[in-house]
Amino acid sequence: MIQSIVEFFKNLPAKHCQHCGEQIEEQAECYGNVCHQCIGLKDLNS
Questions:
Q1: Which of 3, 5, 12, 35 is deepest in the core (most CB within 10 A)?
Q2: Pfam families from the entry (predicted)?
Q3: What is the Cα–Cα distance from 28 to 9, expressed in whole angstroms?
């Protein structure tokens, strides 16, 4: 059976930072693999 595209993306594993290993909160237009802390940006949620 062919899986729907929505189910495919829902079932992808969480992305983790390449440097520290912390889980990255992904954004639709973001292709980065390093978290904000490791690239020197302050937390945008605070």
A1: 35
A2: YhfH
A3: 11
- Residue 35 belongs to some domain of the structure: yes
Phi, psi of 36 (to 5 degrees): -60, -40
- Count of domains observed in the chain: 1
For residue range 9-40, what is the model confidence (pLDDT) as tens digits? Answer: 888 888 899 999 999 887 767 788 898 889 88
Rounded to whole angstroms, how far apart are CA atoms 40 and 43? 9
Map 14-31 to HEC letters.
CCECCCCCCECCCCCCCC
Q: Does 19 map to a domain?
A: yes
Find the domain containing 28 and state its range: 14-46
40 located within any domain: yes
CB 34 within 8 A of CB 27: no
